[in-house]
Specification:
Blueprint lengths: L5 H30 L6 E2 L2 E2 L19 E4 L5 E4 L17 E6 L5 E6 L4 E5 L16 E6 L5 E6 L4 E5 L16 E6 L5 E6 L4 E5 L16 E6 L5 E6 L4 E5 L16 E5 L7 E5 L4 E4 L9 E4 L5 H11 L17 H10 L9 H7 L2 E4 L8 E5 L8 E9 L2 E6 L2 E6 L11 E4 L1
Parallel strand pairs: 3-20
Antiparallel strand pairs: 1-2, 3-4, 5-6, 6-7, 8-9, 9-10, 11-12, 12-13, 14-15, 15-16, 17-18, 18-19, 21-26, 22-23, 23-24, 24-25
Helix pairs in contact: 2-3
């Protein structure tokens, strides 16, 4: 049990009463939405994005994004308007999950394992897999055809396996590569594809045109992906530090290479029409460039722990659905500050137990516009008085948090209750 002074117990009780009242109101709103037949995604481990539709902007730049995060163990967590469709959490897997690919209308997704095993959810259809085939090299990714009636699997040696209406156009399976293949991108017509190596080497097949590569350029960080333009006459390559390389008719509208995030950049997303693009980090953080506004369509992202904060977030995810217990330190249940502390203790970092002390002393302060995965965020009745802080949550990315509130640990948006009580900075333990 937490040891608190009488004054702090009274203050904390009042704060928790405030939080409980807010949670009760949110629960009533959820019940009303269900009665009215409004679709709300309910995850297997708790609520996800309940208040997203009414949420106000979460940082000085962007509102909350919509995305799925998938882990190598098969867990999938949905944020924003991305629906909860299922995961492999708790399932014993022969090989790790290496990719998540949403359908084009974001009503389903495929998970792909390194042995080519395919797991389909929502409106994503299973067309076949290499799960029972001996592979020379592991599968590193997949891509669906434009109509979602087929898909390709790609191995690190560039071997291609096609299913459904996906046509085989060629591969690098018999070619000696300088660096391994890390992904593939279909042409806009679906009648060809590009294979991308970690050094930015490009291999084009079918109607996919070669417009250039970074294969002979020294890169600060490896290439993580490629995005073609809508006409297929150009493409962008994205590096892990957010560096962008443009070829053909793909314009350069900026990059994050000069100020990379600790979480690697995973996708460059171009709008179907209009200028610019978004760079999306693996934790869902979205950075617009060149006039891109709002957020991109819901993305499927592989969340691989890189920083201590990433590992703290993964621990917090594993607690989803566990009950809220006043003074709870786990493993049965948690209160808000107990979850924050327990998550960071898994990476050997400790700090104060209660919310106001955490805001006052837990690591270094960080601006709300500079939050990264694992940072702590806080609410208080006075934004200039740390002793009024009554709630702690763990920032995930993309304007989303994991927190112990209401009656269980759940995922929510950072701005679900507005900005009035949100403290002006977070903390990085």
């Amino acid at each position: 049990m937490v040891e608190l002074s009488a004054a702090r117990v009274l203050s904390a009780w009042r704060a928790e009463g405030r939080r409980s009242a807010m949670s009760a109101l949110r629960s009533l709103a959820l019940g009303a939405a269900i009665v009215l037949g409004i679709g709300i995604g309910i995850g297997g481990a708790g609520l996800s994005g309940v208040a997203a539709a009414a949420a106000s902007p979460q940082t000085s730049q962007q509102p909350a994004a919509s995305f799925w995060l998938a882990s190598s163990t098969g867990g999938v967590w949905n944020f924003g308007s991305a629906p909860a469709l299922g995961s492999l959490a708790g399932v014993s897997l022969a090989k790790p999950i290496v990719g998540i690919t949403p359908t084009h209308n974001a009503a389903g997704y495929w998970l792909v394992a390194s042995d080519g095993g395919i797991f389909s959810y929502g409106n994503a259809t299973f067309f076949g897999s290499t799960g029972g085939i001996h592979l020379n090299q592991p599968i590193v990714g997949m891509a669906s055809t434009p109509d979602d009636r087929g898909y390709w699997l790609v191995a690190s040696d560039g071997g291609i396996f096609s299913y459904g209406d996906a046509t085989f156009y060629g591969s690098t399976g018999s070619i000696r590569l300088n660096q391994p293949i890390v992904g593939m991108a279909p042409s806009p017509t679906g009648h060809g594809y590009w294979l991308i190596a970690s050094d930015g080497g490009i291999f084009s097949y079918g109607d996919a045109q070669f417009e250039g590569s970074t294969g002979s350029i020294h890169l600060n960080q490896p290439i993580t992906g490629m995005t073609p333009t809508t006409d297929g006459l150009g493409y962008w390559l994205l590096a892990a530090d957010g560096g962008v390389f443009n070829f053909g008719d793909a314009p350069f509208d900026g990059s994050a290479g000069g100020a990379p995030s600790p979480d690697p950049a995973e996708k460059l997303v171009a709008p179907k029409s209009g200028p610019g693009y978004w760079i999306v980090d693996q934790n869902g953080t979205t950075n617009p460039f060149g006039g891109a506004t709002g957020n991109p369509p819901a993305q499927g992202l592989m969340f691989r722990p890189v920083t201590p904060g990433d590992k703290a977030v993964l621990f917090a995810f594993a607690q989803l659905g566990k009950p809220y217990i006043w003074g709870g330190n786990g493993p049965v249940g948690y209160d808000c500050s107990g979850l924050a502390l327990a998550s960071w203790e898994t990476v050997g970092i400790g700090f104060a137990r209660v919310s106001d002390d955490q805001y006052h002393t837990a690591g270094a302060p960080v601006p709300m516009s500079g939050l990264i995965a694992g940072d702590l965020v806080f609410w208080g009745t006075s934004q200039t008085d740390w002793t009024t802080v009554y709630h702690t949550a763990i920032y995930v990315g993309g304007g989303e948090i994991v927190e112990a509130t209401g009656d269980h640990v759940q995922l929510n948006t950072l701005g679900q209750w507005g900005q009035n009580d949100l403290m002006p900075n977070g903390r990085r333990p």
